[in-house]
Amino acid sequence: RLRDRPVHELGRGSSPRERVPGGSPARSRQHHSRDESRGGQRVVLGAVGVVLAEEKQWDAACDCFRTALTLDPAWPDGHRYLSVAIEGAGRLEDAVKESRTALENRPNDSECLKLYVHQMLRLERRPEARDALLALIDRGARDGGLYNAIAELFFYDSVFEESKKYFLLAAQAGLPAAFNNLGVVFFKQNRFAEAKNAFEQCLAADPAH
After folding, report:
1. Please, is 12 exposed, middle or buried when counting C-beta atoms within 10 Å of its C-beta (0-12, 13-18, 19+)?
2. CB contact set of 96 (below 8 Å; sequence gap of 6+)
3. Which letter does DSSP use for residue 92 in this model?
4. pTM, 2 dp
């Protein structure tokens, strides 16, 4: 079976409690103080939102994350956290808008990728998800996890040649599990010698796989 299938977890990635950088030395002391105050409020709201989400108080968590993003639109985890909370509240169509924004902002972030793909699979919108990920490649994103996710989406729709192409790219980008996935495709096509070779490459790259 395919490995590294999409999952997501709110607490993964950088914490909402990260230190807020100070403002530019060229700013006035008053402006600097205001920026620090807004940054501190964002950190507190983000942390409270995480606690509320862990307690499944989804709507309250959404309010915290939205307000935090208003204070700091560049908050790296903001759109991902908000997406998780919106999904928890049962609004998957709205959640995927936020997870796509998160992924477009951070195309090489594995948690953003897994969340977006997970949600699109739940919505059964695989072709649209493929197009979105391929667009990231066109814009210069290069990541083994991204290639692997594209390959999986092709595999689920039995587009095997494209699936193999992207699993190979994922493997070449340093993701040993992609060799295993490539072997699964070959096996599905009854090309057993090539499947065996791919499985052996996976074990050579990661003996514990």
Report:
1. middle
2. 83, 116, 119, 120, 123
3. H
4. 0.81
